[in-house]
Each structure stands twice: as C-alpha cells, then as structure tokens.
Amino acid sequence: MSADDRIGVLLVNLGTPDAPDPASVRRYLAQFLSDRRVVEIPQILWQPILRGAILTTRPRKSAEAYAQVWTEAGSPLAAITRAQAEKLQAALGDAALVSHAMRYGQPAIGASIDALFAAGCRRILIAPLYPQYCAATTATVADAANAHLATLRWQPALRFLPPYPDDGAYIGALKISVEAGLAALDFTPDVLLASFHGMPERTRALGDPYHDQCRDTARRLSEALGHPVEVAFQSRFGRAKWLEPATDATLARLGAAGSSVAIFAPGFAADCLETLEELAIRGKEQFAGAGGRQFAYLPCLNDSAPGMTMLETLVRRELAGWL
Ligand SMILES: C=CC1=C(C)c2cc3[nH]c(cc4nc(cc5[nH]c(cc1n2)c(C)c5CCC(=O)O)C(CCC(=O)O)=C4C)c(C)c3C=C
Ligand SMILES: [Fe+2]
Ligand SMILES: [Fe+2]
C-alpha cells in the first residue's frame, strides 16, 4: 500500500454536546432534532415547535442530566468512542488508518473524511456503531457521508458497515459481557432486561426493520445465555405512540412484583446519557420506588476486550478485498 493508497476506517456514533451546559446542549439538540430522519414531521410544522417549546426548556433540564454523567474525559459517549478508535487502530496496525466522527456535533463526518483523504486514504469504510438498523441512525450516517462526497471533486471510495443485530461476533461479545456483569453481582437477578432506544411506532409500519432487529438480538442473546431476556424500549420523546413495552413502565411493573433485575442496553455501542442517567440512575429510582428489590445496570460493550474483538472482526470482514 503506497502512502496515497491507504485504507481508512471511520467509526461513527450519534454525537453529544461539547459541554454539560444549556447553551452547548441547545446547539446539539438543534442539529440533532432538525434531522428529517430523526423527527419525521414536516419542517414547516416542526421547526416552530422545536425553536419554541423544546429548545427553550429542554436544554436546561438535559444539561443537568448530562452533568450527572460527565467525566474528566468529557461526555462518556465521546470518550468511549475515541477509545474504541484508538484501540481499533492498535489492533489493525499499518493495515488501515482509524478515526472517529459524530453524526451531530464534533468531530463532524465531513471533516473526518477529509482528514483521512488528506492522509492518503482513497478507500474508506464508514462504520456506524449501531447494531440494529434504523433510518434515524444508520441511514442518516450514510446520508451525511454521501452529502459530503457530493461537494468533492476527488472522492474516496466508500463502504458502509452493515448492521449486525444477529452477527455471531456481536452476540458472542454480549454473552461474555453480560455473564461477566452478572458474575460480579452479589445477587442473582430474576429478570434480565434488554433496553433498546425507542422509536415512534409508526416507523415500524412504514417499513423500518429496527424493531424486528432489536427482537432478533434479544432472542439470539437469550439462546446464547440459556436464560430468558425481556425487551423494552426507552427514551420516549414527544406525544406520538412509541414502540412498546416502555422501559420505565416495565421497571415499575417488575418493581411492583418484587423482582430483582439486571438491565443492560445492547443497542448502544457505548455508554451515554441514555444508559448512565436514564437507566442506571433514573431507572433504578423508578424500580425501587415501585417496590423493587435488587437492581443492577450492566455496562455496554464500550472499549472492553470482547467489544473490541467484535469490532475488529466486523471491520476486518468488511475490508475483505481491500486489505
Ligand atoms: C425524536 C427523537 C429521537 C429519536 C427518533 C431518537 C432515536 C435514537 N436515538 C438513539 C441513540 C441515542 N439518543 C441519545 C440522546 C437523545 N435522543 C433523543 C431523541 C431521539 N432519539 C434526544 C432528545 C436525546 C438527547 C438527550 C436528551 O435531551 O434527553 C443518545 C445519547 C447522546 C449522549 O450525548 O450521550 C444516544 C446514543 C438511537 C439508537 C435511536 C434510534 C434507534
Ligand atoms: Fe435518541
Ligand atoms: Fe433520554
């Protein structure tokens, strides 16, 4: 491979505010919630609601939530994604140049593609870190990458990592990770609960495979663990009907039944606000408030050894013919 015929790998996750303050959260939410793939309401109706009610109230509340999970390395999502890219670079060595980007906020996808190209990458694998395909996540990464290429005279060749909801490498990594999490507890939970990010119910009827792929993941993981895995969908936003059952209602039901529970979020490649605050902090409170006994939150794959082995496997497979 010559210096101007290198292979690039760009890990992409959702994005996160630059700081846990209302102004930064507002900037982030304005970009995120203006994406037509995320909120599928005509812009002429949606923008006044977003600019009016939502962006005047939510940033303050969300900033407080972000402040509870912020670390010295910054937002957990940003720090973990950076660590994943660094470890994947170490695993791949000279075979490829690895970098990371965020769909919303920084580092931007376009600038990251330019940086890889400037370093000699003429072939780039874009890897959206979403195990389950969703138009609001997977497709919008491809949209952003392709929109950037539309501005270039000299384009790199692009490949996209497909979703991996039932891939053996992913299920295997989840199994190791969940079993290690359970082994570290001082109780044996009655219920294993897999919480996936929610979506409006209507996207399912419109043909989005997200719901079915979440169910596939949970079924395959349950088979691998030899233990039932319950499924719930979290983070409802807005007034429309979202996928059910809802995580908060499920935790309240399990709590009221006097169960003990271990909850985890296999749809998130990295721990973030939605897992560390919504599940580990607020979910625990909801569960205990309903009368639940023991509760444990098990971390995402993050940059753990099984998580990195999985990423390397998926990426190497997708680079076949290029490497
Ligand atoms: C209509 C609104 C939203 C849709 C649709 C949606 C889909 C979706 N999101 C993720 C992953 C993440 N979402 C995160 C935060 C977050 N999500 C929404 C709204 C929708 N998400 C909001 C308003 C927020 C911001 C936080 C808040 O104000 O509550 C995050 C965490 C980001 C972080 O900084 O830590 C992730 C990750 C998926 C996978 C998904 C569809 C499948
Ligand atoms: Fe979200
Ligand atoms: Fe949330």
Automatic annotation (TrEMBL):
GO terms for cellular component: cytoplasm. It comes from the Bacteria. CDD domains: Ferrochelatase_C, Ferrochelatase_N. The keyword Metal-binding applies. Pathway: Porphyrin-containing compound metabolism; protoheme biosynthesis; protoheme from protoporphyrin-IX: step 1/1. Fe(2+) binds at residues 197, 274. The keyword Ribonucleoprotein does not apply. Keywords: Cytoplasm, Heme biosynthesis, Iron, Lyase, Metal-binding, Porphyrin biosynthesis. GO terms for biological process: heme biosynthetic process. It is an enzyme of class 4 (lyase). Belongs to the ferrochelatase family. Catalyzes the ferrous insertion into protoporphyrin IX. This is Ferrochelatase. It comes from Sphingopyxis macrogoltabida (Sphingomonas macrogoltabidus). The gene is hemH.
